[in-house]
Amino acid sequence: MKQKINFIAILIGTFLSCLSASAQEKKPVDKRHYDVAAFLYPAYASDDPRLRPFWPSGIGEWETVMNMQDRYPGHYWNRKPLWGTINEADPAVMSMEIDQAAGHGVNVFIFDWYWYDGRPFMETTLDNGFLKAANNNKMKFYLMWANHDVVNTWDTRLNKYHEDNVIWTGKVDRDEFEKICKRNIGKYFKLPQYYKINGKPVFMIYDLPNLINGLGGLQQTIAALKWFRDETKKAGFPGLDLQFTMWSSNFNFSGFDANKGEKPKNAVLQQLGFTSATHYQFAHFINVNDDYLNILETVKKEWAKIDKEFDIPYYPHISIGWDNSPRTGKSAVVKNNTPQNFEKALRMARDYADAHPKQTPLITINSWNEWTETSYLQPDNVNGYGYLEAVKKVFLQQH
């Protein structure tokens, strides 16, 4: 009898053990958190009078999107936003966008940020839209200072003449630079929504040569950026994560100082105080008039080169596409950049992040809304929500 009871106990124990093992097998594996950051171009606003000289109808650069077929009848580019010509500086609209972004795995917006003629430009989408949205606690944001010159590119009435007249310069002197930095530290860095790495506010600079030329040379720029880092520390932060916009990895610093010859780029970036890097667009370093899968192979090689030649962390960047024809009527065009192939690119970026576990798992995407460069996540009449769904599948569902 005792043996029979022991046998039954063993059977019960084995059965319970199997149940436990099965439960462990079915227990969901903890998914890794990724910071997926999409650049946001703030030109789709209706409340910024400084946009009127470029887009007089009052809806920002939606004007260029919506009148494309009027300017170029029968042109292949005929896209329409599923959300309509929304005013992104409206907090109710931005609240909807935040829900859509966060719900699909985009948890950071990188605002293209401009400063011309002694004051900010295109800032209403951030100030009136994002920062006044009731749900902005779902997202983080940081600034990319788009310090390039402004020519006639935005104005479709004039850009066809290919004139290089500079409307506003992106160059600033030291006094103007200090004014900009103090303002951003006080106005934005201190906000809880501002994106930080190890407590350090992230600030990205788009055009380093323009910065150097405006400040008067390489040594002057090293001094100015040291001042910026020191001011950030004085404001109570452990430091500044200064992010470099990588164009081609083949750049050099020759020509910025009296001493001629190529300067070691990795060492100079460190002297300047840059602590991380990413790209803004594939078009900056690749012939984009190609198939998307071919472009991805080149991107992989570029990442490997950056990994080898630079000591600062590189955060992998994925561009959705490139086609600037809404502004110009003709353009180099990325081909075969379907949502399915974009998903492959995102998996490539996720693999890069996983292969660099010591750095923050940050991935940047061009972009949330660059409609006139045909590189946007927002849904349209061609791909619907396809690109957003790709982000969701790779970074939220992770399968």
UniProtKB/TrEMBL annotation:
Pfam family, one: Glyco_tran_WbsX
Signal peptide: 1-23
Source organism, top-level taxon: Bacteria
Keywords noted in UniProt: Signal
InterPro entries found in the cross-reference section: WbsX
PANTHER family found in the cross-reference section: GLYCOSYLTRANSFERASE (PTHR41244:SF1), RHAMNAN SYNTHESIS F (PTHR41244)
Protein name: Glycoside hydrolase family 99-like domain-containing protein
